[in-house]
Amino acid sequence: MTPGEPIHAELIAVVVAVTDAQPRVLTLLDGSALPAGPLESGHRSLQAGLRHWVERHTGHRLGHIEQLYTFADPDRSRAGRSISICYLALANETRTPLGGRVSWQDWYRFFPWEDRRVAHTIIETIVKPGLSHWSAGNPERLTRAARLFGLDGEDWQEDRALARYELLYEAGLVREATRDGRPAHGEFVPGATLAADHRRILATAISRLRARIGYRPVVFELMAEQFTLLDLQRCIEALTGQTLHKANFRRLIESQTLLEDSGNFSSGSGRPAKLYRFRAEVLAERAEAGTRLPLARP
Amino acid sequence: MTPGEPIHAELIAVVVAVTDAQPRVLTLLDGSALPAGPLESGHRSLQAGLRHWVERHTGHRLGHIEQLYTFADPDRSRAGRSISICYLALANETRTPLGGRVSWQDWYRFFPWEDRRVAHTIIETIVKPGLSHWSAGNPERLTRAARLFGLDGEDWQEDRALARYELLYEAGLVREATRDGRPAHGEFVPGATLAADHRRILATAISRLRARIGYRPVVFELMAEQFTLLDLQRCIEALTGQTLHKANFRRLIESQTLLEDSGNFSSGSGRPAKLYRFRAEVLAERAEAGTRLPLARP
DNA sequence: ACAAAAGTGTTTCGACTACACCCATGG
DNA sequence: CCATGGGTGTAGTCGAAACACTTTTGT
Predict the structure, then answer these.
(1) Radius of gyration of chain B, Cα coordinates, nearest whole angstrom
(2) What count of Cα atoms within 13 Å lies in the side-chain half-sphere of residue B194?
């Protein structure tokens, strides 16, 4: 079947958690790469293998796991062909402490332009000029850039994070591009890099997760057992990088049958809020309608 | 990195076309399995390799290609571990003739219950009793079955084809289940089988494609260069297995900027219809808003 | 004339938005 | 008291869904 060339196969995990209204991703201790491991035998499925492997190396129990993508391009390997099967996994950061070989990193450290909750000027001052230079005289490139980065009144689609990263790569505006031998077209866009194509894999995970939120209640994997509506809102805002409309968000959530009242109340600054939990049926069946998002006006 | 065990890697392709308002899938000549081939070296990417391989073996030019899923469960292999990387590809059946080693099969031959354009009794007379028997006394199973198969007034979600197949498998109502050693719970549900887990892979493809249609214009890969609005409607109906509301469908399509008038008209029975084509920009950028579907009343 | 399909008008209904406002607690 | 966050009411807008109806061809 396969030719004589050797085949390497590895698993790469993008493990995501949200704490303090900030999405985090699990990396090696120095934050330079995603955790990866060999494809082990003896597990019923890849999922099970991955779950076991991550839990053993991090002391974390994982929630939802889904396959992201399989890369098998020859230029990824040192010799022969190397296959990387990538997974997205959701965890609750606070639940358990970490082992010593990995750490949590704010995912916007790698994609500052994806966080639109805070006003920043990256897109205006760096991305836009860089892309302009790259598209010089090419209207196709220009409209593509405008659409992806919401430039000429186009609106921002949060789930196109991967396409945005790929555009920056193509335009030579991220370090990985020149590392791979592409010409630069301006100042590099700020943002930490990762080993090999791990930043691209992380962008894939972000896109996937942001798209999922829109039509499936995946968030609960990331929440504590009980939470206020604002906690939930902050969590979704963290993932999508967008601010939501509070009043409408509450109504939207309450109109769905996702949550149930726990009877408890939160303490802290401001009026105490009801604490909710996800309904048991939703936890069992993740197949429900989903969570529409009421954006706040810019 | 990898342990000493040998690793097999293969590509499996689900190639889809629509002709005569019927979706078809490419199989081996006898319709018993999906086309599969070794992972060849010398291509820039898996996509490119797959495209080349399919085009060489079938004489077909492929349109859109996307990765579906990677299976690497040990029980799939004869010895060691076997990795199957599955792709979904869209083609235009009529464009070129086939080579001698493959054939087109109506995909509803494998999933008769997924075609809701025609009235049939499979769900009422076979699926429902079988699932009832399987869920006996287990309310969780019962609601799950009802939700997926639209049983107690629940509505039918066409993109959950994979979940439906998996439920039937779990309940022992498809042949593959007993082949794998599961107990049966009634008469088998009609529908041709495929080798190994290829039917499951096809179900994955159907789910993915049906979900895609909802928010991205992928259909154009399956259409001739020029077509009437009814042609387009029939194509989408074929894929989703649902009937659409004609008047609203037209308005919906026309309100988006997907199509342009070709100036030509169709002939045939009935009043001639304008022939449209997809706008060039849409062909270049498949990133648009997407196609909402106005269902017809049952 | 009739069948078959193209195409248009209009009304209803519900969802999403935005804005305004009141409530409860801690400091 | 005021800052912070919880929580409610409501009017406007937009798009989806349903129904009815006219138009143009082939037989």
Answers:
(1) 21
(2) 24
Nucleotides of strand D under 7 angstroms from a protein beta carbon: 3-9, 15-20, 23-27
Q: What share of chain A is helix, strand, coil (3-state, %, to 5)?
A: 40, 20, 40
Place of tokens 């010398």: B42
B270 Cβ within 7 A of any nucleic strand C atom: yes
Confidence of residue A297 (pLDDT cuts 50, 70, 90): low
Cα A259 from Cα A274, distance rounded (Å): 11
Domains and their CATH numbers in chain B: 7-109 (3.90.79.10), 113-191 (no CATH), 217-284 (1.10.10.10)
Residues of B in contact with A43 (CB under 8 A): 74
Output the distance from B257 CA to C15 C1' rounded to whole Å. Answer: 24
Report pLDDT for A205: 98
Indicate the average pLDDT of chain B. Answer: 85
Tell me if A217 sits within 8 A of A290, measured CB to CB: yes
- More confident site: A81 or A18: A18
Name the pTM for this structure. Answer: 0.90
* Alpha-carbon dihedral angle through residues A243, A248, A252, A258, given to the nearest 10 degrees: 60
Q: Is the pLDDT of residue A27 over 60?
A: yes
Most confident of the ranges A184-188, B7-11, B186-190, B294-298: B186-190
Amino acid at B138: N
Q: Please name the residue whose C-alpha is nearest to the C1' of nucleotide C27.
A: A269
HSE-CB of A291 using CA atoms within 13 angstroms:
28
- For the stretch A129-141, pLDDT in tens is 999 999 998 988 9
Distance from C-alpha of A186 to C-alpha of A261, rounded to nearest angstrom: 53
B43 vs A50, more confident: A50
- CA-to-CA separations, A171 to A122, A133, A138, A175, A186, in angstroms, rounded: 16, 9, 13, 11, 9
CB contact under 8 A, B44 and A75: yes
Percent of residues, chain A, with pLDDT higher than 90? 50
A14 residue type, one letter: V
End-to-end CA distance of chain B: 56
| Cα distance between residue B174 and residue B197, in whole Å | 12
Task: Identify the H or E element spanning B261.
Answer: strand B259-265
